[in-house]
Design a protein that fits this description.
about 425 residues; alpha+beta; Porin; 2 domains; 16-stranded antiparallel beta barrel; 5 helices
Amino acid sequence: MKLFQQMLVATASLGLIAPIAAQASDVINLEGMNDYNRSKKSAKRFDSNTFVNEVNEELATIKGRVDGLEAQQNNFEAGSFSDTTTMDGKAIFTVQSVDTEDGFNNAAIADVGYTGKIHAAYTYQLNLNTSFNGDDNLYVRLKSGNHDGPSDIKSNYNTYLSAGAGKADALTVDKIWYTLPVNERNTVFLGPKVENYYMHGTTPSIYKSVLKSFTLGGNGAALGASTSPGAGWKYEADNGFAVSSNFTTQKGHQTGMLTNEGKTSWATQVGYTQPQYSVSAIVNMKYNGWTDGYFQSIDGTARPGDGNSTNIGLRGWWRPDNTGTATPSISVGYDTSETDATGNSNTTAYFVGLTWQDMINADDRIGIAFGQPQKHEDDTVDPFLYEVYYDYPVNDSITVTPAIFGGTSKNSAGTEVDMTGYMVNTTFKF
């Protein structure tokens, strides 16, 4: 009986469960649900990967743009405005007054009204350096200015300012040349406006001057202004020895270079330099009446108008181990010039320059220089130049330089006359 009852209960239970299961399977497809869930999970995984990939691509694009902007910013900060060229420059504001004695050169100074008045002028300069292979360099200097004082002050007194540029407010190509290292020791130069002393192997002087006559340890007979078409070569050994040779021809673009019609300067220099000192000698042969413009002796130009000259220059400099001491750096120079021109005599010149650095403020400079510009052996008056200045660095870009300078010459009657100049330069470097 008990077995029979159990069988009845089991049968009834199955009868009740079967409809419910059938209804549940009709309402909910469990297998389909599982398939759906698996497809949704797969879809979710695919969409998230796609999203991440797209974001990564966008981030990579943005990063590339940021890197490009950073590179452009770095180039801009370094003075570069192309892949090959960098630029730097400076502007110099000059406030100046000059006192000269009456009667100089038949009152040419008085007629202009230059003496005793305050004058303001400027010089603006841009330097562009372009390299095509990382070792060579195409140098271009653009310059403008309005230093147009009387020629007597600049020439007969030899007080032409280093910062002076009489360009009539026009921005001109002042210098342009190409430098190519042949190997580690040899370098060649070529250009339509190249300055010969930039092609020398040894720096003749470390004195920074206010007057142009004091640059290069005496800028006149042996080392002087020579921006003209030319070429040169220099050799620099690893022990400090250097030798160079170069030529420039005045108006070589018209007369041709190294021609009988062209006025040519051929300079050869040998020198030896160590970190603390340097000595050098130069021979500069000048042909066909080469003239040095504003560098004159008081009896006429040292470079004759109708002949050739042989010019020899000796240079040396020394500096102490440390700045900020009472011991200055010293630069010296001595020049002789012999000419075969009619009515011209030989000339001599000398220069001494002293520099103290870091004396009052960091990176400041005190300079004192004096010397004799080109003097003819038959001059009755000994020409003389001097300058005293102080470089005060306001910051890394601005320097203020007050200076006093002067010169001795003679007037048309052969009487000695003096000139004294007062100047403040403000230099903006960028």
